[in-house]
Structure formats: C-alpha cells, structure tokens
Amino acid sequence: MFRPLALFAAVLLTVLAASGAVAQADDPVRAAVTKLAQASADVRAVEAAAGDARGREARGDLIDRLAAARAVAADTGATLQAQMALVDAKIAEVGPTTPGIVDAPDIVTQRKLLAQRRATIDSAIKRGNLMSVEAQQLADSITAAQAAELGRNWAKRNASPLTPTFWTDLAQALPQDMARASRYAGRVMRDIGAGARGGRAWLAVLGLVVAVALAWPARLALRDAGRRYAIGSAPGHRVRRSSYAMWRVVTGTALPTLAAVMLVQGLRWSGLAGETAEPVLSIFVFAVGMGNFVGALAAALLMRSQGSWRLLPIGDRVAVALLPWAWVLAVLTAIDILLPAVNELLHVGGALDAAVNAGLAAIRLAVIGGILLTLGRLRAHADEAADAAAAQAPATDSPASVGAGRAWVGGVTLVAWLVTLAGTAALLIGYTNFSLFLTRIAIEWLAIVVATFYLLLVFVDDVVTTVFAAGSRTGQLLARGIGIRASAIDQFGVLLSGALRLGLAIVAVVMLLTPFGSDVGSTFDRFATVANGITIGDVSISPWAIIRAAIVLCVGLALARLFMRWLNERYLPTTELDLSARNSFAMVARYLTIILAVLWGLASLGIGMERIALLLSALSVGIGFGLQAITQNFVSGLILLAERPVKIGDLVRIGADEGDVKRISVRSTEIELGDHSTLIVPNSELITKSVLNKTLNNPLGRVQVQFSVPLNLDPSRVQAIVLDAFAAEPTVLDDPEPKAFVDSIVDGRILFNCFAHTAGPRAAYGARSAVLLAVLQRFAEEGIDVGTVPQPLQLLPAAAPGEGRDVKA
C-alpha cells in the first residue's frame, strides 16, 4: 500500500524539481544571479589561493579564472540591465500611487512584485560591478606579485665564477646530481629494454625515417615549390618577396616540428619511451619547433643566396656573415628550452643550476659579442669602400641621409654593446640570473619579436595593398560591381593595411612586455576592458560600437548614392522640370539623404536625437562665431536653391565679370567666364550684392548701335541703311522689330541710337559686330562720314598768385 504512495511522492518531487529548474532557466534574472554567485565563489577561491601561488603558470591560471569571472559579470550585467529596462517600462505602465484613490488589489500586488523585482535586479547589478572591481584588483595584485618575484630572482646573487666558492660548491654538488642523472638514465634504459622486448621497435625506426624525410627532402621540396609559385603566379614584385619569405618560415618551422613529432610518436608507439621520458619528449618537440622557427626566420629575412628576394635593406656580405650566427642563436634557443626542463626533472641542486645558467649566459654573451664584432668589421669595410667610391665619383646620396642612417645603426650597436657589457659584469659579480635575463630577453627575445613582426608587417602590407588595388582583380570587381572609384579602392587598401599593422604593433608590444612580468592574458584583458566601452554620461563608446557605426554610415551613404542615381537617371527626367530645377531638387535631396545617413550612424553608436539636439545647442555659439562665413554661405545656398534668382545656364554679371552659371552648391556657385576659366563665387555674394542676370525672366539679347553723321545728311536715308543692316542679319529677331532713333543733334552732327534683339544675350555681341560691319561698309560706299561727337579742348592761361579761377564743367 505504501509503495504506490512512495512512488507517487518521488514522481511529484521530480516534477517539482524539474519545474523549478525550468522556471530558473526561463527566468533570466534568476539565472544571472546564479552565475554571479558562482563567479563570486570562484573569485573568493582565487583570493584564497593567491598567497600560495608560485611561478608564472600558477599565477597565470589564477588570472585566467579572474578574467572569466569578469566576463561573467559583464555578460550578466548586460542581461540585468535589459531586464531592468523591462521592469521600469512595466512600472511606468502601472503608474505610481495616487493620493485619495484606492487601487485594485491586483494592481497593488503587481506594483509590489515589480518593486521587489527591481530591487533584486539592482542589487545583482551592484554585486556584479563590485565583483568585477574586486577581480580586477586581485588580478593586478597577482601580476604585481609576479613582477616582485621576478625582481627578487634578478636580485639573487650567487657565487662569482671568478671565486673558488663557485667551483667548490659545484664540485660538492656534482656527485649527487650525477647520481640523480644516472638513476634517471637507468629508468629510461629499463623502459627502452621493456619496449624492445615488445617487438615493436620497427615503429621507432619508421618514425625516424619519416622524421628525416620531413626535415630534409620534404622541406626543401616545399620551399622550392613555393618559390616557383611566387615567380610564376604571385601578383606583384613586393608580394612575391614577402609571401616567399613567409612560406620559408612556415615550411622551415612546421616540417622540422612535424618531424620531431613523428620521431617522438614512433618512440611512443614502439613502447621504447615510457612514462619516465615522457616529459622530456614533450619539451623536446617544443624546443625543436622554437629553434627551427628562429633559424627559418633568420634565413627568410637574410636570404643569403637570393639577394633580390631579401626584405631587409642589407648587402650580400652582411647576410652571409650573419646567417651562421643566427643558426647558433637558434640552437641556443632550443637548448635554453630543453635544459631547464631537464634540470627541473632531475631535481638538480642549486650549485649545478647556477653553473648551467652561468654557462648559458657566458655562451650567449660570447655569441652576441661575436655578432657585434662581425657587424663592426662589416661596417668598417663598408665605410672604406664608400670613402674610396666618394673619392672617385660624386656621391649620389645626400650627406644628411647617410648620416641619419649611420646614426641609428650606431645607436643600436652602442646599446647592444652596453647591454653586453652589463651582462658580462653581472655574470662576473655573481648576478647570474640577471645576466641570463639580459642576454636571453633584452637581446635575443627582442630580436626574435622584432624580426617576426617586421616580417608580418611587410607581408600584411604587401598582401592587402596588392589585393585592394585599382588594377587587381578585386579592385576591378569592386569598380565594376559596386562602382567604387579607383582612388577609393587604393585608399581602402592603405587604410586596411594601416589598421592591421597597428593591431600587429600592439601585439608586438604585448609580446615584448611578457618577459617583464606582464602576462599576455592580463595585458589583453586590459585591452578588452577598453574594448568593452568607455561610458561618457549615458553613452557607452567602444571600438566595436565605432566600427559598427562606421559600417552603418557606409551603408547609409551607399544607399543615399543609389537613391541619388535613381533620382537623377530615372525619376527627374520624367518630370517637366528644367535643368536648373532638377539640380536644385537633387542637391536638396542629396544633403537630406546624407544627413539621414549620419543620423543613422549616430543612432547605431547609441547617440539619440535628444543628445544630438543638446550637442548642437551647446555648440551653437561656437558655430555662430567660428563658422559664421560658412553658415552664411550655406544658408545663402539654400535660398538660391529655393528662390532660384540664379539658375544653371543663366548669363550673369558680377562686378566686371560675366559668364554662365555652371553649378550651384550649398556653399558656392561656379561661373564659367568667356575665357573658359571658372569663377567661384560664395553664395552670400549672390544674395547680399547686386547681380545682373541677363536671362532670368526674358532671355532675349539686345543689340545697341550708336554713331553720329553730319547734319547735312538725310536722316531717313541713314535710318534705312541701319534697318536694312538689321534685317540682313539672321540672328536679329523680327519681333520685337529693330528701331533706329535720332537721339540728339550736337555740334552740327546727328546722333543715332539704334536697337535690335536676338534670341539670347550670348548672340548679341556677334550680331552687333556683324551689323556694324554692314553699316560701315554701306556708309563707305555712299560716302557718309560716320563718327562721334567732337569734344572741344580749351587751354586756359595760368592764374596769377593769389587769384582764384572759376572752372566750368
């Protein structure tokens, strides 16, 4: 009887638990609070473990956990903010309590529940912000502890190699360390013997054969194949060089690393490598990869036997002399990775560890000194050759450029010598760790990072500017498909290359700071903090928001351009508007669409219309004073486009200049003069000053001819000659008909003032010239003296001193 009841109770509890889990999953606030509680517990655990953490890896794991907690806080904060907005909207819809009015019970209950939910969300947001701040402070303290430990490690002083104590301690510790190494080697040999008895030793031999094939013939074959492809198929000379250099680095690193992997896997599959040798094998693969990366990088940059493919601006002698030293550094890099791991595995004593570090530091100092001496000898030979060439022929380079190049090379060499001398002094005094740090980090790591990112910078710039070029396939596709100008494609390629190279430079700085106690993850977390956004008032501005706004603005401008093309090519030609009206309508529509695109971009950035209005009101005073002339011309341009006192195609006179209106914008108007030059007139000049528009209302042109004839001639005869000349000219209109008037009689001559009209003012000048030629020809045939009214000239005697004189005009 009780078993069915127990079964029913179990089912009921299961259903209730499942419904609770579903409710928690459906409620984003409860899920966010749960995530915050878990992240807070993780922060407390990291805080408890921070004091006992030793080493970069342990502290790095703690910093990663803190970064994950901050990410949870950021995600839940965004979710809670969205839920807060929803709750505020519901509270506003319910409304506050009104004195004297009793609300319904369900409204009161709803208002209470909403207030409780809002308080819960607000408390969770505050807890999340506090937890994020605590996690950041804890991460900073862990990073500071790492830097402090690194400083203590540098300041640790051992016995100097020049003192007997150093060698006495080494001699005393060496038997114990050799015994540990012997026991470890014995365990490795027992594992090898056990594996050999398993009958799978041939797998190790096969792995060795495959490793040799990958490391030598396969690597050379792939390198030559990449060179043939670069010569025959790669576009452009620059991208060929950088792509081939990158290919040499990839093949020179990947294939030897893969060869090491195959060798180690062969030992594992054959059973020859047991658990004893497993840590060494893993470190061995990494050491081989890093060593070959350094060597391949140096070979790709120096190009000893292929000077035309060399990216560095150095000669063949320098490349040939530096390449052996580069491979020595590559071997030292591999040893420097493998040897400390072996020492840690064998638990060697402090004396032997200090001796190993001193030996590594001494070898590195010797190598660096050898490189500097080689460079010095090469520079001396180069200077002697340059002096001899300068004595025989005039120099082609300016002394300033040559001096600048020698200055920075000499400065870098001087710094390297100072670091080398400081490392040598530290080693001799007994600061072995500091000496090893200077040689390993300050010189070798710096050289590797700089060389790597130099190659990446050149490669990225060559590839991007080649792909996004006006003459490339991508550029032609963009130009034909979207209609982008060739210059815009080139500009986009340069801008994209600059942005990518800036990102690489930031990564390079992070990598350079890594050995100084700055963890890569923490450094990128700081960049991520900036990337999450900077809050200014109610607006959160982040790089991603700026990129999104830029994309939205580009899309808006593209849509505006498509709309203007449709308006100019499809819609406006179907209307009855003239060319000037179409231009005015299109100009206003263009600026409206641009304004809408800008507002759309600002809205995607999180800036609303009310903030834009507030910003404009705050800047109105500055705009009024600083942009007074531009604003005046802008408003005048809008008046010109609206009232149209001057239209495109009008013949206007401004002062002494006369020409045709060719273009009207919101700032200025372009007028083509008679000599085909362009007069750019600010729009305020056309609005505030007098402008003669010869084609505004009446497009007719007027021809005016003035002359005088003697008084004894028949005026009707002269009038007939003039009217006949007007009638013979084809450009002169019959309506209005030409007129010839007797203007006045002055000093025995009859003054004539004659008028006619042409179809336009531009034809008036030519018509006037033709009529004058015809009239003068007729007057000459008939012996009529034509001229102007004579001006009398009267000479007056000089006035006596003190006497005045009346002057009549």
TrEMBL record:
Residues 1-23 form the signal peptide. It comes from the Bacteria. Its main location: membrane. The chain crosses the membrane at residues 201-222, 243-267, 279-302, 322-342, 354-375, 407-431, 443-471, 492-513, 545-564, 585-607. GO terms for cellular component: plasma membrane. Keywords: Cell membrane, Membrane, Signal, Transmembrane, Transmembrane helix. GO terms for molecular function: mechanosensitive monoatomic ion channel activity. InterPro entries: DUF3772 (IPR022249), LSM_dom_sf (IPR010920), MS_channel_C (IPR049278), MscS-like_channel (IPR052702), MscS_beta-dom_sf (IPR023408), MscS_channel_2nd (IPR006685), MscS_channel_C_sf (IPR011066), MscS_channel_TM-2 (IPR011014). It is found in: Cell membrane. Residues 704-785 form the Mechanosensitive ion channel MscS C-terminal domain. Residues 125-182 form the DUF3772 domain. The keyword Cytoplasm does not apply. It is a multi-pass membrane protein. Residues 630-693 form the Mechanosensitive ion channel MscS domain. The keyword Transmembrane applies. Belongs to the MscS (TC 1.A.23) family. This is Small-conductance mechanosensitive channel. It comes from Sphingomonas abaci.
